[in-house]
Design goal:
The chain contains 4 helices and no strands. It is an all-alpha fold.
């Protein structure tokens, strides 16, 4: 997943949607946040509905999206999975 996530961060940065100085450092921060969220969820430390959406919103804000847009995007329905074609 790392190469795909890095590609997406770089594309978002190049398009101006994300505002990050270092895509590699950003990838590390995003991956660390997601791993901790998974660990907390597995231990039932993160209680209550909406924890995943809140994490997604915070990550989008970290990438540079305005708070209102990050909130809306994080609560959109997930897309239907499709086979990887890269």
């Amino acid at each position: 997943m790392g190469p795909h996530a890095l590609r997406d961060i770089e594309k978002g940065n190049a398009s101006g949607r994300f505002q990050v100085d270092s895509p590699l450092v950003t990838l590390s921060a995003v991956a660390g946040s997601l791993l901790d969220q998974l660990k907390s969820s597995a231990k039932s430390e993160q209680s209550g509905p909406g924890a995943e959406e809140e994490m997604a919103e915070l990550i989008l804000r970290m990438l540079g999206l305005p708070p209102e847009e990050a909130h809306e995007v994080a609560r959109r329905p997930l897309p239907v999975a499709r086979p990887d074609r890269s």
